[in-house]
């Protein structure tokens, strides 16, 4: 890859043959990596952590955990912001947590309110409910909370990982709809891997005061990143791609992509060291609820539009508060291909079969890695230009290089 791709204003991409036969070593999961880093920081002995992600979100977590500065800047990493908020509180580390302009527009009130209820002194430094926040003192006063689970599961994961360090542990009673549930399950399973047990009854999760025990963990490849390869295989004329480092029994909820793509043209065959993606048939009508796998929604919206599938995607409420308002961003960029997406204001996307046209303009990415990666597979249909290629660094820094390995021409 020419070195200047990540620093370029835009990239131009196309695929001359539209035939793809390759194997790809995906980046490791940033969700797993950021959890084991927090657990390791709470553990008395250092753990053996293998295969940590090269994603910027994880590199930022590593850097900030090692820092003695008062002010920690998470850039645009949601998990890093939320996990450090609970972590710095329970270890009684005075900290100012801040981030990018967008991070300061992403809500954190549910987590801050919960920590205040437990006895934390945390102040909003600019806008009520949003970073930057100043974490001051922590004097634990209680061990039970009622928390809504519909805005972000990251608040719950953050508290759960910190819970064993509290003098009386913590009982979280989840109120109302819980979104992104597999991420909470991942948190609890990783805690268990490091010797911390929990009890989950109905809507209540209880973690007693306990010590994490040093253990080893090898982070799996990232299932969210796999989705772009599923889309590529579905759109190619001919394709057989092996994604290395993915397991059939994954902790990651985004392994749901296997089931989704059974409908959208890709079969998955697992082997010891990864999974083979091969082309199959695509359905005409597709409806899916993304409540528990929100990071897959953009990939599927763009792919379904390209394949002329009649689509109804639901459970998209949380997309509005991620790296950008992803519903509006997907609608506006699909419009450049002559595709009309409806009902974005109801947290759903309805896209009827329409002929996709060559794009009328450059694809904007809105500082969102998933916008760049969800639209890139369309280079199998048209030459496309995507602005700000560096956005992929948040989760998949080698994305453009891997596209080149698969025969895409990528020009700065
Ligand atoms: O806990 C995690 O690692 C994540 C949880 C999800 O966020 P929400 O819980 O806010 O939906 C997901 O979108 C994000 O990319 C990573
Ligand atoms: C939403 C995402 O990450 P985060 O919330 O951790 O910034 C993502 O990676 O798509």
UniProtKB/TrEMBL annotation:
Pathway: Metabolic intermediate biosynthesis; chorismate biosynthesis; chorismate from D-erythrose 4-phosphate and phosphoenolpyruvate: step 6/7. The keyword Transferase applies. Residues 16-65, 69-403 form the Enolpyruvate transferase domain. 3-phosphoshikimate binds at residues 30-31, 35, 152-154, 180, 295, 322. It catalyses: 3-phosphoshikimate + phosphoenolpyruvate = 5-O-(1-carboxyvinyl)-3-phosphoshikimate + phosphate. GO terms for molecular function: 3-phosphoshikimate 1-carboxyvinyltransferase activity. GO terms for cellular component: cytoplasm. The active site is at residue 295. Phosphoenolpyruvate binds at residues 30, 78, 106, 154, 326, 370, 394. The keyword Cytoplasm applies. Pfam families: EPSP_synthase. GO terms for biological process: amino acid biosynthetic process; aromatic amino acid family biosynthetic process; chorismate biosynthetic process. Its EC number is 2.5.1.19. PANTHER family: AROM/DEHYDROQUINATE SYNTHASE, PENTAFUNCTIONAL AROM POLYPEPTIDE. Belongs to the EPSP synthase family. Monomer. Catalyzes the transfer of the enolpyruvyl moiety of phosphoenolpyruvate (PEP) to the 5-hydroxyl of shikimate-3-phosphate (S3P) to produce enolpyruvyl shikimate-3-phosphate and inorganic phosphate. This is 3-phosphoshikimate 1-carboxyvinyltransferase. The gene is aroA.
